[in-house]
Design goal:
The protein contains 19 helices and 17 strands. The protein is of the alpha/beta class. Bound molecules: ligand C2E and calcium ion (2 copies).
Length: about 525
């Protein structure tokens, strides 16, 4: 009996013990699952996500479980935060231009590719290229160049935020993109514009924002830009076509000095040329495909020839005659312009020495690009060219456009001063078209100003032009400068210029530009005629 009760009790104890053990095991398992397995699984799952996409990084996990596991979770969160920052930095580096803070070329291409997938959603592509940037960078240093680009970036960003709504379409400024896509090239994408006129207005808005003086340290620089415009889908259905067409329009804008230009199929024919001209130009200089024509300048009072202007031309083996308006802007974008100018200088002075030997006592004028002015050895090169031909410095006049001088007036005063001290003539070309005031010219060591042909050509029909010509002559004389009227196309204009006491004249009415040999013959005829009439 006792034995039986004992074994019952033992069984009961064993059952209770087993139950307790099972319960403990169960509880332990539950606790283990919650404090270890679950947090561990959450951690491993997160780690697996991390490798898949950056979005999964953004969340954090709640530290749970054992002290060790909590620490692991905290470490994980810290690592995730660091990775998120790293992603942001990498994205910044891949898509943002570090100099200006604008989106870069990659970002721009990505955006353009996306926009160019919906033909029912028009947009405008603007390609902008700074004028004369190379000159600034080469002469004032990269530091100033960088400052200038930053300033342009800031001006473009402001322009983007003040874009006026176009036509009836409301403008979503958020969807616009302004980017720096290369050295001195910027671009803008403006959605919801399909009409050419609005596209041009938008380009003008950016032009206005960028142009104007910019003060950097002791330099006051005039900023200028040329903009090429392409409209999607009209001017191209894909990124590459649009870019190429906007680029052509940009070249055209630069060559014609008109600020902005819209792509046009007719540009393609002539302007595709530009894409190969650059390398061709180097060959042209080396292989004498370039030649000069000379256009006489006469004394308005006496009719005497007082000089000629050298104008460069190019006989391209495939494309035939190419005018300076087409290739000078390309040369100005690269170092080629220096070699080109040196070629012109040496050839012009050689020819000048030749006609002086034949008894024609006048000198020659050579056109300079703004970049030439900034070349460190320009003065040395000029003196070499003069010496080589045994010419007095007074035989040479350098023609510089008003805008070239205004690009960096302080610097211009310095360089031109050194040239003038050497008795080389300095002529301000295309006067009236730039931002120069006569009071500023006063500070320049100029000897001559040339009134732009746009005022002279029509002065007998347009009273505004006449006023400009008359007052320019008066003021220039007050400053002791010689005045040349260029673009004299008829006798009436020449007569009027004589009445206004203009000193010199140049234009088709007197003579067209002509090659050296033709000039010599023309000079003989001119003299024969003058001896007869005089
Ligand atoms: P520019 O210095 O204003 O030269 C005068 C331009 O006007 C020349 O055009 C000339 O042919 C043209 N012209 C002369 N008389 C008349 C006229 O009566 N009526 C009209 N409508 N035009 C007239 P071109 O030769 O095509 O030269 C254009 C520009 O190219 C020049 O303008 C000058 O800025 C540039 N250029 C020419 N040769 C050189 C050069 O050797 N170096 C540089 N840097 N630029 C040059
Ligand atoms: Ca000229
Ligand atoms: Ca001119």
């Amino acid at each position: 009996q006792l034995h039986a009760r004992l074994s019952d009790a033992r069984r009961l104890i064993m059952i209770v013990a087993a139950t307790i053990t099972l319960a403990v095991i169960f509880v332990a398992l539950v606790i283990f699952r919650n404090t270890t397995i679950k947090p561990l699984r959450a951690l491993t799952q997160r780690l697996r996500y991390v490798g898949q996409s950056r979005e999964t990084l953004l969340g954090t996990i709640e530290p749970r479980g054992t002290a060790e596991l909590c620490e692991l979770a905290t470490d994980f969160n810290r690592m995730a935060a660091e990775l998120t920052d790293l992603y942001a930095t990498m994205e910044q580096m891949a898509f943002v231009d570090s100099l200006t803070g604008l989106p870069n070329r990659n970002r721009f291409h990505e955006h353009l590719t996306i926009l160019a997938q919906s033909p029912d959603k028009p947009f405008v592509l603007l390609l902008m290229d700074m004028d004369r940037f190379k000159a600034v960078n080469d002469t004032l240093g990269h530091h100033v160049g960088d400052e200038l680009l930053r300033e342009v970036g800031a001006r473009l960003t402001r322009a983007q935020s003040t874009l006026p709504p176009s036509g009836s379409l409301s403008l979503n400024r958020e969807r616009c993109l302004v980017a720096r896509i290369g050295g001195d090239e910027f671009a803008a994408l403006i959605p919801d514009i399909s009409n050419i006129q609005n596209a041009e207005q938008t380009a003008q808005h950016f032009l206005d924002a960028v142009s104007g003086p910019c003060i950097l340290g002791s330099h006051r620089l005039m900023l200028g830009t040329s903009i090429g415009i392409a409209v999607y889908p009209e001017h191209g259905h894909d990124r590459n076509t649009l870019m190429r067409h906007a680029d052509l329009a940009m070249y055209f804008a630069k060559a014609s000095r008109r600020g902005s230009a819209v792509y046009d199929a007719s540009l393609d024919e002539g302007s595709l040329l530009h894409l190969t001209l650059e390398s061709d130009l180097i060959r042209a200089i080396e292989q004498d495909e370039l030649f000069l024509e000379y256009q006489p300048k006469i004394d308005v009072g006496t009719g005497d020839i007082v000089g000629t202007e050298a104008l460069v031309r190019w006989m391209h083996p495939q494309h035939g005659f190419v005018g300076p308006q087409e290739f000078i802007p390309i040369a100005e974008k690269t170092d080629i312009v220096q070699r080109l100018t040196e070629w012109v200088l040496f050839r012009a002075l050689r020819d000048c020495a030749e006609w002086q030997r034949e008894g024609h006592a006048f000198g020659v004028a050579v056109n300079l690009s703004p970049i030439n002015l900034h070349h460190p050895y320009m003065l040395k090169v000029i003196n070499e060219a003069l010496n080589e031909n045994n010419l007095a410095p007074a035989s040479l006049t350098l023609e510089l456009t008003e805008s070239a001088v205004m690009a960096d007036p302080e610097y211009a005063i310095q360089v031109l001063g050194a040239l003038a001290d050497n008795h080389i003539g300095i002529s301000i070309d295309d006067f009236g078209t730039g931002h120069c005031s006569l009071s500023y010219i006063k500070k320049l060591p100029a000897t001559e100003i040339k009134i732009d042909r746009s005022f002279v050509g029509d002065m007998n029909n347009d009273s505004n032009d006449l006023v400009i010509v008359r007052s320019t002559i008066g003021l220039a004389h007050n400053m002791g400068l010689t005045v040349v009227a260029e673009g004299v196309e008829d006798a009436a204009t020449l007569t009027e210029l004589a009445r206004l006491s203009c000193d010199r004249a140049q234009g088709y009415h007197i003579a067209r530009p002509m090659p050296f040999q033709a000039l010599i013959e023309w000079l003989d005829d001119w003299h024969a005629e003058h001896r007869q009439s005089g």
